[in-house]
Amino acid sequence: MGTGDAATRAEKRARLAHPIETGALVGARWSPYGFDPRPLPAAELRSLLEAARWSPSSYNEQPWRLVAARREDGEPFERLLGCLVEFNQSWARHASALVLGVVVRRFAGRDADNPAAEHDLGLATAHLMLEATARGLSTHAMIGIDAGRARAAFAIPDGFDPLTAIAIGYAGTPGDQPDKLRDRDAAPRDRKPLAEFVFGGEWGRPAPCLED
What CATH number is given to the structural domain containing 155? Predict the structure, then answer.
């Protein structure tokens, strides 16, 4: 991790309202728009994908498929980049690797839809991103993809839906991006307080554990 990465990560560290054991990872994880296009070793990417592999899922269905390409792969990387919407292409082209997240809509062993499929793809994505943070890497997940283009580009069959993408690499030096992206990367991180989304016995009323 370069000095620019370290300085930016320190500036973007989350201000936790309550102590959490994973604070070093959760606090440091953020989604930059600026990437330094350094090579990402294949072994590093394999470890991120291994973290995704061990994510929990409903009935252990593991209803995700991932299409991964490093910049060094050349044409597959460019093809995956072309599956992003134009705005995301403008900054994700500098990432060291891209991963396309594909959701499996149906249960493998029975004739029924899997209502937890998107949720479980999200869990796998979160595991991958936290492992990346632990390794000093940066990630930026996005919903802005062209699903039809992705389906055609990688011959994705029916029942498997391209849904998300992740840019992976090294955070760029602040100030290298265009103004619009620089402002986004410089903005402080924020989250809603727990009381706005953790309810107790009555909808909209904060759970008693928040009032101690």
Answer: 3.40.109.10
pTM of the model: 0.88
Q: Kindly state whether residue 79 falls inside one of the protein's structural domains.
A: yes
Helix 117-134 × helix 42-53 angle, to 10°: 140
- Residue-level pLDDT, tens digit, the chain, 212 residues: 444 555 555 566 667 777 776 777 888 888 999 999 999 999 999 999 999 999 999 999 999 999 999 999 999 999 999 999 999 999 999 999 999 999 999 999 889 999 999 999 999 999 999 999 999 999 999 999 999 999 999 999 999 999 999 999 999 876 666 677 878 887 888 889 999 999 999 999 999 999 86
* Within a domain: 163: yes
